[in-house]
# Entry
Amino acid sequence: MSAHRCWRWAAWGAAVALPGLLHAADTARIDAVAREWLESTGAPSVSLAVVERGTLAYARAYGHARLAPDLPAAVGVRYALDSVSKEFTAAAILLLAQQGRLSLDDRLDKWLADLGPAGAVTLRQALTHTSGIRDYWPEDFVTPEMRTPVSPAAIIHEWADRPLDFVPGTEWQYSNTGYVLAGAVVERVAGEPLFEFMSQRIFLPLSMSRVADYQKPPAAGEALGYTRYGLGPVHPAPKEARGWLFGAAGLAMTPSDLARWDISLIRRSLLEPRSYEEESAPVRLADGSTYPYGLGLAVGNDAAGRLRLSHGGAGSGFLAENRVWPREGVAIAVLTNNDWASPADLADRIAFIVLAPSAAEARARALFAAFQNGGVDRAQFTEVGRSYLTDEVLAESRASLGPLGPARLVELEREQRRGGMVTRVWRILCRDARLRAIERDAADGRLTEFMITKRND
# Structure
């Protein structure tokens, strides 16, 4: 029996929806897709926040923050961020750079002694994962040594002295170790613990009131992490011992607090303009190419071509997804206390609701709905396209697609030219169906094809 059927569901967490931002219909759709995600994945709980027009517009939590004893999920419950914490370590370095106390191009050995090969790496390279310093935690589980407390200095001593995986600046390879080193530099330059520096310079100014150091034992009101083996039952996940998450993954907070950080990225209200440019610029490698990662942020365009800043987090018993569309003033933060069901899937569905579609996506959405309800306008199609749209095709499309309910996602997978036409492949998700639509546009803008089939992947 799946995990979600084994539990007695608690009441859904109280919602926070600010009037005048999200429409009631949109909040109802967000609520529906969150419930569907929780039910289909068997995750114990999920907590989310949505920013619209640069303002916190919606927050809600679902399910169980703890299973035994039961603690219902609520908007005030903290979840581990794991690697989303890197956004804040990078910001701490930028704050010190603004004060002239260090430079992004300082070598690490300017601030930390006895580093071996890692000493020649710059802070910029450590923060952009172009350092070549080997990652101390590439596994997706808590290794035996991580069950014993460790100091950041011990991690640095063990890993920074190893041979580099590549010449710094020539490749991109994710490394938690680089962020342990960056956190140690913050403490050395600032003369205070990393968490205290962040609290005074980031969390307090942004009114992020529920942030905690996740390296400490979780407080009574915090979510506990859960795991499963294969498709087996749900178990409490082992916690990383103190010290192992320093600088790289050590924070816990509510999605609403994470949303306040996202709002500061949208409004550029905490750092200086130059720092935001540094933070959101894709890193340039030695060969002149770029990689879509800045300083603690993935930087790139989404499927609709919109600039998106983001970071995910994955640790023992927790997953996180944080996305910001600065030009649209939109952000989505999704935190969950499971380590098998990706919150990115739920973030995709929420983005589908709150972000305005491109012209091509809007037409694809409308066409899918028309095939569902039998209202396809043949005038949109060329003569060849109309030849396919027989009464039989439209009737069977309506009968088979209509019961699937509204689309939860319509996303462009790829676009190319073929036969003098633009071909687009759309991924369409409904509650209980995964579909694909092939669209072909003639030179005059009319359609020669919009064919919907089931995905079998």
